[in-house]
Specification:
With 471 residues, the protein is of the alpha/beta class. The chain has helices at residues 11-22, 66-71, 103-108, 114-126, 128-135, 146-153, 160-165, 170-180, 192-206, 216-228, 257-264, 270-277, 315-326, 371-381, 397-403, 419-424, 456-470; strands at residues 3-7, 26-31, 42-44, 51-53, 80-81, 85-90, 96-99, 210-211, 232-235, 250-253, 284-293, 306-311, 336-339, 353-362, 389-395, 440-442. The protein folds into two domains: 3-38 and 212-279 and 415-470, FAD/NAD(P)-binding domain (3-Layer(bba) Sandwich); 80-210 and 282-403, Polyamine Oxidase, Chain A, domain 2 (Alpha-Beta Complex). It has 17 helices and 16 strands. Helix 1 (11-22) runs parallel beside helix 10 (216-228) and helix 4 (114-126) crosses helix 9 (192-206). The longest helix is centred in the middle third of the chain and has 15 residues, at 192-206.
Length: 471
């Protein structure tokens, strides 16, 4: 029987393990922390019984991913919950850009931009089941449905600013800009529209869902699928050098490229070591969890029903904050993402006290305290918010890196998603999961298709490993 060692138990490491174990490989997952899951973890915080997601929280790209389908995670207890409204982007005048799962309902609420929204996302979201495989694989692969992918991908290379200018109302521009800002890139950069278009399209098909019982439920289902296939998981095992790696036929690294270069040292070919050690990191996330009595008193009533609220003001303001953090400057009014997962999954609350998930985009390695800036931004669109805070739990950029070693400087995307790294991953190659050492592969979110609890980086890396084992 072939053997595999997986270093790191984030969603991609576990996904790689499940795919390998499904093919009859004896898999052992090694995790440095005492708990598995990487960014897909949840726990009680602030108030006993109040359930907070640690990082990964909303999962439009995970539902229906090829890995999720093949692993049959529903058999292991994974359930998805839908909010009434997927996302709202409130403005100072009390209005908001509002995203529903339904393209038609979204378009109807966007006034004179409704027809254009339907043109951009109607057909592609209806065809998402055909598009998903192409979207969730390395870009330089031949898609199964090239015509559908061509229609979807036509505007993707454009800067987010170009697509935003197509819209005539501030509500629609802000809504699209806030979604495109998930890329942590200045919105005038090429391909920043790709992230926004991908998330919107997936969301219209799948919804901006959350996992019932917290994102930890995704990790638990993956772990159960792995052990059900004979795999093993060992926690508290840190790998710092190649000599600590067990002898295996294949080794999978759910780690950032720099960590792999440090572990393998001289074993890594120079053509790989150079880009791995020079891998570019992105801006940081500064996270604050809140316990809120009675929920958030958003001025816009739709925001009170939205699973996700983007707090950043107008499109121009969001664009300015993303330019600032990329330049290393902390904006006075940062872009803040707010998660109200309890609206879809009420079991996360305790009575009338609810868990609120929030993080601000900040410069890489930001050492200041962004807590007050986050509270002030939310208060701006929800007067009286401050008075409803029962307690807070803060995770700075430094604490992010301590929580998950892949999140260096608070970079929760595991690397800057510039054109080269978005297309190729850590290095320019048609084999993005290979580390240049026979039988060794990288499967973290640094590789295509990138961040999320979809497991597809691990899926593709494991498929590459199985081809190696078959030779």
């Amino acid at each position: 029987m072939s053997t595999a060692t997986v270093v790191g138990s984030g969603p991609n490491g576990l996904a790689a393990g499940v795919i390998l174990a499904s093919a009859g490989v004896q898999v052992t997952v090694l995790e440095a922390a005492d708990e598995i899951g990487g960014g897909a973890r949840s726990s009680e915080a602030i108030v006993p019984g109040l359930l907070h997601d640690h990082c990964s929280a909303v999962h439009p790209m995970a539902v229906g991913s090829r890995f999720m389908v093949e692993a049959e995670l529903a058999r292991y207890g994974l359930e998805w919950c839908h909010p009434e409204i997927d996302c709202a982007h409130p403005l100072d005048d009390g209005t908001a850009g509002v995203l529903y799962r339904s393209v038609t309902e979204t378009a109807a609420g966007l006034g004179q931009d409704g027809d254009l929204w339907h043109l951009l996302f109607g057909r592609t979201s209806a065809n998402f089941s055909k598009l998903a495989d192409g979207m969730m694989q390395p870009i330089l692969r031949v898609p199964r449905h090239p015509l559908a992918m061509a229609r979807f991908g036509f505007p993707a290379p454009l800067p987010g600013s170009v697509v935003a200018r197509l819209f005539r109302t501030e509500q629609t521009r802000a809504l699209f800009g806030g979604i495109a800002a998930h890329a942590f890139r200045p919105l005038h950069y090429p391909m920043t529209s790709a992230i926004g278009i991908g998330i919107v399209t997936a969301g219209h098909h799948n919804g901006w869902v959350v996992a019932k019982g917290g994102s930890q439920a995704i990790t638990n289902a993956m772990a159960a699928a792995l052990t059900d296939r004979g795999g093993k998981i060992e926690t508290g095992v840190r790998i710092d050098t190649a000599s600590q790696l067990p002898t295996s036929d294949v080794t999978m690294f759910d780690l950032a490229p720099g960590a792999i270069a440090s572990i393998l040292g001289d074993r890594l070919p120079r053509r790989v070591a150079r880009p791995f050690t020079r891998f570019r990191r992105g801006p940081g996330a500064y996270k604050v969890d809140f316990a809120i009595e009675g929920g958030v008193p958003w001025t816009n009533p739709k925001a009170r029903k939205a699973g996700t609220v983007h707090v950043g003001g107008t499109y121009a303001e969001v664009a300015a904050t993303e330019r600032a953090i990329h330049a290393g400057t902390m904006p006075e009014r940062p872009f803040v993402l707010v998660g109200q997962q309890y609206l879809a999954d009420p079991q996360r609350s305790v009575g009338n006290v609810h868990p609120l998930w929030a993080y601000a985009h900040v410069p890489h390695g930001y050492t200041g305290d962004a807590t007050e800036a986050i509270i002030t931004q939310i208060e701006r669109f929800a007067p009286g918010f401050r008075e409803r805070i029962v307690g807070t739990a803060v995770r700075s950029t430094t604490a992010m890196a301590e929580y998950n070693s892949n999140y260096i400087g608070g970079d929760i995307l595991t690397g800057s998603k510039d054109i080269r790294q978005l297309v190729f991953g850590p290095r320019a190659t048609l084999a993005p999961y290979s580390v240049g050492v026979p039988g060794m592969y990288i499967c973290s979110a640094a590789t295509p298709p990138g961040p999320g609890a979809h497991g597809m980086c691990g899926y593709h890396a494991a498929k590459s490993a199985l081809k190696y084992l078959d030779h």
